[in-house]
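Handout, page 2. Input:
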Amino acid sequence: MEHPGAESPGGGGSTSSSQEGDEPESPSGPGPEEGDEEEGGDEEVTAEAGAAVFTMMEDCLLKKIEISVSEAEKRTGRNTMNMQETYTAYLVETRAVDSQAEGHCSPPDSLWRRYSEFELLRNYLLVNYPHVIVPPLPEKRAEFVWHKLSADNMDPDFVERRRIGLENFLLRVASHPILCQDRIFNSFLTKESGWKEMVNETGFQLKADSRLKALNATFRVKNPDKRFTELKHYTDELQSVISHLLRVRARVADRLYGVYKVHGNYGRVFSEWSAIEKEMGDGLQSAGHHMDVDSVNSGCLLLVDRYAASIDDILEEEEHYADQLKEYLFYAEALRAVCRKHELLQYELETAAQDLTSKKQQCEELATGTVRTFSLKGMTSKLFGQETPEQREAKIKVLEEQIHEGEEQLKAKNLESRDFVKSAWTDIERFKEQKNHDLKEALISYAVMQISMCKKGIQVWANAKECFSKM
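Output:
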């Protein structure tokens, strides 16, 4: 799953430096030549991030409370447009870990949440923690499924899988060293009513960056950080690989389902065959109709039929492993969100630096009376005469104030960008370890399940072979 050009998501293989803020007069991030001179900057930031990963998990919420989404319930109500709708509500339960350790088995605190409330929580976290790879929610409608599994979002099987996904989302947030401390998240777990009003009072919607603004920054930033550029490329390839893997699995599942179900026809075929046989007729008929379960022949073929019917359970179990892969398919967008935020900060930093340079040039031109570049203002001065010394002094004073403000703004932008890179890379290192562990476990479990399924098939047909040899 690893990107060939990086150790991990942006895995620190680049030599570009991110020492934003060292030079407040210019935008952060070195040019192509500067990167070679400052080799080792990335390693320093990555080393700091890696060291922080192991210390951040000490105070996570999951060490204090147990969280579960225990059941789902279909409900009918009215939406904001006063129209009747059918939706699914999920029961969120929490219980203090201390009470269980002390031997008290108190009932858990519980409340019901809709999927839309989970979405609201995640949107809030995305806006307020732009440097964090916010865990994704399970899909609203099923994708990459084999044909027998319904894509209807009200289907009981799909609702159950989404319930598991929502519980996993809460566990991910609760185990995150930063997100778990958010008061809104804690209110989501503990306050039955008034939670939405608390979220809206934060005004997080006003802080959200528009897609147009982010897209503009993507195309106009002049000195992008190479590590974040590599992270974007890695994210695109990871999403492409997992999407293809899920499609292949769905196609294989469809074919397996068809092949295994055909095995169920063996009983009918052997029963029909028995009608034209004399010496083998009784055995084939017995096998075909399973009239005598204790019979060697019928017992063997009954096993084959049961094996054929077991494909439903096998493929439903496969869906749980597929959902683990889907989670990282959706994680890709969370990684992109972090990259977009960095591009936006970098673009704002470059814009502030350009504006400051322009004002300094204007001030110098007014002070010396020379114009370095062609401008309408310069042509006007030549046509209608120069400004009076008093007017020039007044303009210089205004520009000096603007330059001072611009320098302070640029310093603040440099500091914001530097802090963002440090915090984001710490979370990227944490995510990298989580991803490698989770995908390794999921793929191993999937392989073990396939091996077990194949062994079961081999045993069934070995028994059948032995039975047929005795006919």
